[in-house]
Amino acid sequence: MNTFLTPNKGDYPAFYSTYLDLITDTDYCELIDSQVQELKDLFAEKPEDWENQPYQEGKWSPKEVLGHVIDTERIMTFRALCFARGERSSLPGFDQDPYVLNARFGSVEIDLLLEDFAAQRKALVTMIKTLREDVLDNEGTANGSPITPRALFWIIPGHFIHHLNILKERYS
Which residues does the UniProt record annotate as the domain DinB-like (predicted)? Predict the structure, then answer.
């Protein structure tokens, strides 16, 4: 596998610092794997039906948060693949709220969502292992801003940490 260092500032829009600043572990594969187990442990320790209860009116349930994380990781991975392969077209943004609403994650069994998350993470790691080092810094445009595959890949675990912290702090 390539060295897979964290991205440099300027390789991504500044608002992604919210996620990237949460990352303290620089062993990417270990971080990705540990997050799968951390998520499974969190859901396992919660009382029955916890995953269906938003912490307040108008907020997502824990299942919807998980579904949002999965969707976002797929989109970030797709963007990274496109730019690693030399895509020059600008890729669109996405509005997370209709994605969650239309997915109807509340009707999906939590075990299936957790399995889907683990499978997405496995696919992410195996894809990264196939990439050459020199394509990780190809710049592309997504949602109107320049970004590299390296940055997109590292945003994924940071975005996860952000939402895991919310699940731990607000969904008690």
Answer: 37-166
From residue 137, alpha-carbon distances to 15, 107, 144, 147, 151 in Å are 19, 39, 18, 9, 8
Query: How many residues are there in the chain?
Result: 172
Q: Which CATH number fits domain 14-170: 3.20.20.60, 3.20.20.370, 3.30.540.10, 1.20.120.450?
A: 1.20.120.450
Which sign does the torsion angle of CA 46, 47, 49, 52 carry?
negative
Cα 35 from Cα 140, distance rounded (Å): 27
Cβ–Cβ < 8 Å for 117, 36? yes
pLDDT band for position 2 (50/70/90)? low
Question: The pTM is what?
Answer: 0.96
